[in-house]
């Protein structure tokens, strides 16, 4: 029962915060990454140091922005692929991420609002939910037409 309450609380927090984000204006892709889309270029693993650094900064900014609407605070550790597709107007960045800090901003806010469910936000940091030291495989999908991106991470237990 306790787990169900935690899941519902996280979903409510994520829904509320992500609705606030949709009003933001279109975010532009860095030029070096935009070239991957315009040339339909794929690098697995990426060799261009400038592109790797731009991808890491772009991904880390997205992860930081998403910390407000998801449960875990993540930071990228390794960019494994950059895949541009001109026809679809899309860029995919495959990378690994690790938990940056725990409890995250969302976990602290949720614990404050739902004190009857969350006794202590530090309970999430014990490692029984996910492996806190693991590098979790993630994907960032960016759409040129809308300027919106989607982050997906498989959290390793």
* pLDDT < 50 runs, ≥5 residues: 1-23
Content-based structural category: alpha+beta
Task: List the domain count as a whole number.
Answer: 1
**Between the first and last Cα atoms, what is the distance in angstroms?**
20 Å
Largest sheet: 5 strands, antiparallel
Helix/strand order, N-terminal first: HHEHEEHEE
Mean pLDDT: 76
> Number of DSSP strands?
5
Measured as a percent range, the helix fraction is 25-40%
- Shape estimate: elongated
Give me the number of helical elements: 4
Sequence of strands across the biggest β-sheet: 1-2-3-4-5
Our estimate of the beta-strand percent is 25-35%
Using only CA atoms, what is the Rg?
Answer: 17 Å
